[in-house]
Amino acid sequence: MVLDGVLQHSQAESSNILVESTVAWVATNDASPLKGQDVEKLWYDILKNTTDTPMPAPDCSGRCHKDVTEDEIRLNAQGFLLSPQTLARTQFANALLQASQGDVTLLSTSLPEIYTWSLYVGLAIGCQDWALRTSSFEDFQAKIRIGEVFAPLNKGASQSWSLQASCIGWPAPLANPPAKLKVQTKDPILMVSVIRDPSTSYTWAVGMLEEIENHVLLTRNGDGHTSWGFGGVTTDAINHFLVTTEPPAPGTVLDS
Predict the structure, then answer these.
(1) pLDDT, tens digit (0-9, with 9 covering 90-100), for 164-174
(2) Do the Cβ atoms of 212 and 181 come closer than 8 Å?
(3) pLDDT tens string 81-136
(4) What is the pTM of this model?
(5) Is 238 helix (H, G, I), strand (E, B) or coil?
(6) Contacts with 83 (C-beta within 8 Å, 6 or more apart), sequence order
(7) How far apart are CA 53 and CA 197, in angstroms?
(8) Which of 67, 68, 178, 244 gets the most CB atoms within 10 Å of its CB?
């Protein structure tokens, strides 16, 4: 078995909102239109300019919100960071560049996503996994403060953040509460995790080393969510394990 991107379901809800990523790539990569700029300052300036008044998204034409708030920008940024491909990072850099010039079309929320059935299916499933129905708005405000202090770039805005906000007061019974596992298998499980995965944090993978006894952790020193679809040497290592059942050496770190 291979776990490509590892979720830990035993941590506290407050810990999960700190899953985040970095925008350092857009300031250092040759393919980025923002290379050499102070991207952190640019990011904060964009957020500041949309805190009180939404910024227009003139090219949406009914496909997305005609203007964008600070919260939308912080949440939608994660979508650009999921892919390990350079193209996605370039698109994110272009989105930030256009936003700094007053056009946030690329960071606007797509209108079809608001009404798609998959959004509600994901919400219904996710709300079976956490005890958030017992939380209150005041409790969530405390979590927001955690994000503001420990993850100032995005204030903790992520899939976990939006799920926790949406599941407060969820009426259906809790089916899968958080619990620490004790997985014991005859053959090793290959756990693959990316250092800068904005969806399934490397912290979760390291935490699951305590819960999966017969394991080998393979680390990709890179960006994006999961590794197999990237097609690098990590993909080759996964394929080799699936075909031969020979895992990489413990502690292996690959760069692609």
Answers:
(1) 888 888 888 88
(2) yes
(3) 777 666 777 888 899 999 999 999 999 988 765 556 667 788 888 888 876 655 67
(4) 0.79
(5) helix
(6) 224, 225
(7) 31
(8) 68
